[in-house]
């Protein structure tokens, strides 16, 4: 977007912000420094906004500016490490409800994407939408075999509009990055990049279908969480067809009580489902507000949740997943020194940080919480405060962790809404310990070793030649070598020891795996054969163990 095209739209944004008495935002960005005289003409304050808190005024302004700004506000609501809590709470209330587009256009998009007439694809297609949002709208339909489905259709021309609005957001982000006094903390361009990535993901309904399919497979039993089935033959990049489900929003307490659902059981189940998604499956629903989480009231004796809208899903790198789980365990056990050490070991903080100061800061945040009854402690609030405190020690957080933090806030909010007395700690602690015990058990480790053995055996013969070639290059001066012949001889000896350790480790792993398989898969051979294989494997490990 060229600067001349940006100017009128930037002025409109500034005008709306001023109309909602958000003068401090405009002043901070210095948008009107050259236009001081014109400022009184740009906007008049909206009636009744003067007494509203700043978060509510910002929420109303973003709603007036349009759907893309609503999306930006929703992203900001997750960044509690960047924005004050009162603003984040208000922005979390943003809903991108917009007028629907004509049903005839939706029908035309479905026919174009699925390359067949609607009458051939469905026994019935309702042109009146069930719901309409900024990116897409949803229509009810019936398959030829009588099954009810919902069809999600992207808005016509939404790609161009999003591209235009994202360009405007980039321009505003650059202005804020240049002029805002706290730009290094707010990182406006990073926030814009998050909005852009989220919108790109939401524009691909086939990707959303794949996310729904994976989550459904992870909870295949459907006992705790039900995920609607994806109809892949009726799904494309701009059309998504899902099984139609029935339930009530998880914040409709009256309907849940009227159905006779045990809310205490349901609340505890919601906490368990969250930890299973994050730490067992490493794939979690990251937009878990009440509109996307329903309750199946038809199952009053065995309540379960129903998940909807899979446009925003989260996962963590395996290393972060492990470190985060260990941090939670240490938090449950009030081991502040371990929390401090784990933050450094995970690479979230530089190893130059003073551990005693970090431990003291963690203790200062946590101890006031532990004076309350456990049922009154907000784990989500505690995690947010820990992250805010850790920022003083140059904490580096990845977007996935921030998304997880936002999801934790949502899930805990749902749990306390269903059961105000729920003890989050008592529910979460045993679930997390069980998941970690299963995830890092010897059996699972052996399975991983078994998977990688072919790769290791394939690469092992190359190691001696690679080491020899590297030493030749050092000797020829093609790489920076060791000036002292004694050090070069020590390096060669170390290489030989490394080769022995690799060979012994591979042999030991193979023997231990063989012992396990013989013990579990072929008990008819007796116990001595697996025992001998296990002893030989351990001896191989000992033989290859590095010695001084």
Provide a descriptive summary of the structure in words.
- With 548 residues, the protein is α+β, with helices and mostly antiparallel strands.
- The chain is 60% helix and 7% strand.
- The protein contains 24 helices and eleven strands.
- Strands 1, 2, 3, 4 and 6 form a five-stranded antiparallel β-sheet that branches. A four-stranded mixed β-sheet has the order 5-10-9-7, with helices on one face.
- A hairpin with a 5-residue loop joins strand 3 (136-142) and strand 4.
- Helix 21 crosses helix 23 (485-521).
- It is globular, with a radius of gyration of 29 Å.
- The termini are far apart.
List keywords for this structure.
single chain; alpha+beta; globular
Cα(first) to Cα(last) distance is 65 Å
Helix content: 55-70%
Radius of gyration: 29 Å
Number of helices: 24
What structural class do you assign from the helix and strand content? alpha+beta
Question: Mind summarizing the main beta sheet?
Answer: 5 strands, antiparallel
Percent of residues in β-strands: 5-15%
Please report the total strand number as a whole number. Answer: 11
Shape label = globular
| Average pLDDT metric | 78
Low-confidence stretches: none
